[in-house]
Amino acid sequence: MINNFEEIFNTARQSIIGKHLPNNLYVHISTLTYLDNILQKYEEEGRKLVNNINDFTLVKFNLEEAKISYLYYPDFDSNPHPPLVKSIVVNIVEKTSKIIHYNQSNNPPLLHRKETFVRVEYPDYFKFKHLTNIEEQLGLLDNSRYIGTQTEWQQLLTDHSLTFIDHNLVCNINNNPEEFIKIDRHKAAIHRNRLSRPVNLALEAGLFSDETTFFDYGCGHGLDVKIMAEKGYKSNGWDLYYQPNNIFQKADIVNLGYIINVIENVAERRESLVKAWSLTNQVLIVAAQVLIDDRQKGFMVYGDGIITERNTFQKYYEQEELKTYIEQVLNKEAIPAGLGIYFVFRDEEKANNFRASRFHSKVKTPRILLPVKKFADYQELLTPLMNFYTERGRLPEKGELTQETEIKTEFRSFKQAFKVILQVTNESEWDNIADQRRQDILLYLALSRFGNRPNIRQLSPVLKADIKHLFGNYQAACFLADEMLITLRNLDIIKGICQELKVGKIFEKSCLIHLNMLDSLPTLLRLYEGCASRTIGRMEGANLIRFYFNIPRISYLYVPDFNSKKEPLLRTTMTIDLQDLRVKYRNFADDKNAPIIKDKHLLMVNSSMV
C-alpha cells in the first residue's frame, strides 16, 4: 500500500520527465515505465481504483493532495493542440474517482507545448518542439489566459489570421490556406541598387584577388553578377526563373545568397546547397534569413518556414541552426561572416587563416621619436620591416618580405636592421605589439576548441612562424589558450576585469562598451565576446556591446545616432545566451519610451570619437 505521500510528492517534483507546473506533474503514457519506481507504483495504485483503464493519454500527479488524474486526448499525435475529451480524477486516500466528460463542451481545455510531456525519443518529439519554438517566437504563447481553452485559442488565431496544416502554421488569407500550396518563388527576388551584403562581406574580407572568378547561384535579377564584372572579375550567374538558360560554371567564389530560405521543398533546398558547393573551387558564400521577432508583420509558418502575403516562402533559420544545417550537408565548417551569412572554405589552411584574421586586432606602428641620421638615410627601406613587425609581432623569416635582399645587403640581417629602428622608437611599444599578437593567436586557438582545432600541419607557413616566434611551439600556445577557456567559466573574474576597466559604463550586472574599443580590451573579455560572434556573428550596424557578468550572455546594441546626438536612442538589441546560443532581438524603433544612452563619453577612451 502506498502511503508515504510526502516522499511521493518530492520524487515527482524532482522528476526529469514530464511537464512541471507549480502544483502538478504531467507525463505522457509512453513515459510511465521511465519514471522513478515509487511513482510507478503510486500510479499503478491509482489505476487499480478505476479498473485499470487504458483510454488515457496523460497522467497528472497532484503534488499537494493524493490525487491522480487520467486525461484522454485521442488526437494527441495528429492535432497540434488537441482538446481534452475525458478526465478521471482518482483520490488515492478516499479510494474514489470522478469522471468529467468534455466531448460535448463548446470550450474544452487544450494542450500546448506537447514535447514537454514526452521523452526526446518519442517519434514526433522534434515536430512538437519545432511548433512550440515558432509559436513562442511569434508571441502566441505569451499570455496563458488566451491559450488554455479552445474558444480563447481560436480567437487568438483568428486575430492573427492563422490556421494549421498538420503541425504547421499558415496565414489564413481568404480563409483558404490551400491557396498557399503553390509558392511563387520568383517573387522573393528583390530589386537592389548595390552589391548584396554577403558578396560585399566577401570583398571586405579580402577573399577576392585579381584573378578570382565569381558565380552567383540563384542570381535573381543579376545585379551582383553585373557589379562584380564591372569590378574586373570574371562573373557569371544562374537563376531558375530569371536566368534559366545560363550554364552552371565552376568558380573560385560561389554565392548562394538567400536561396535556401525561399525553397519550401526540403530535398530541393539541400540539393541547391550541394550543387552550389560542387561548383565552388575556393569559397562558398551561404546566406539565409535568420529568425527575428516578426509577430507584428503577419508572416506565419508553413512547413518549416513561413508564407508571406506575397505568396512566397521564407524559412527563418536560427543562426546556430543555419550553421549546423550547412555543416551537416557539406561536412565542412561554416564560418560566420555576419548575421545569417557564412563562408565555407575548400582549403583548410585558408579557412584557418580567415578564422585567425577575424581576431587580428588593429595596432599602430610606433612613431619615430627623434630620427638619427642612419635611420633617416634608410627610412624608406626600413618602413616595410616596421610594418611587417606591426602586422605579425615578430621579424620576418626568409622569403616573407619583398625587400629582404635590399635590407640584408645594407644591414646583413633583419635583426641588425631592427636595431636601427629601435634607436628612434620606444622599444616597449614594440614589445606591446608582440604581446598583442600573442593574445590574438591565443584568442583564435581558444575559440577553435569549440570546433575542430587544427593540427600544426593545417596552419599556413605565416601562422606557424608566428607561433614559433611568439610561443616557442604549438603545444605551449594551445595549453595557454585552454587555460584561458577554463578561466572564462568564472564570471566573478569577468566581473572583476570589467570593474577595473578604464573605459565603459559599469552596471550592477553588466558592463557597456563601444564596439570600437573591443580590440583594446583584455583578452579574456575579447574571448567572452568571441564565444558569441564565432557562431552567431555580430548584429548589423551594432556599435555598442554589453558584457554580462551575472550570467553568460552578450548583447549587441545598435544606436544609429550615437555620433551625432548627446543622448541618442537605442534602436535595436541582439542578445545571445551563451549557454544554449539562443538569440533574442528587440526593436525600439516605434517605442516612445526607447532607452536613452547617457554619458556616452564613458564608453570610449577617445572622446573625440563621439
Overall description:
The structure is a single chain. With 610 residues, the protein is of the alpha+beta class. Helices cover 33% and strands 18% of the residues. It contains 17 helices and 23 strands. It has helices spanning 5-13, 37-48, 125-137, 150-159, 197-204, 223-230, 266-278, 319-330, 348-357, 373-392, 404-411, 414-422, 427-448, 461-471, 474-488, 491-500, 523-533, and strands at 19-21, 24-28, 58-62, 67-72, 86-91, 96-101, 162-165, 168-171, 213-217, 234-238, 251-257, 280-287, 300-302, 305-307, 313-314, 335-338, 341-345, 505-506, 510-514, 544-548, 553-558, 572-577, 583-587. The strands form five sheets. A six-stranded antiparallel beta sheet has the order 1-2-3-4-5-6, with helices on one face. A six-stranded mixed beta sheet has the order 10-9-11-12-17-16, sandwiched between helices. It has a six-stranded antiparallel beta sheet with strand order 18-19-20-21-22-23, covered by helices on one side. Strand 22 and strand 23 form a beta hairpin. Helix 10 (373-392) crosses helix 12. It is elongated and about 105 Å long. Mean pLDDT is 86; it is low at 172-189, 293-304 and 606-610.
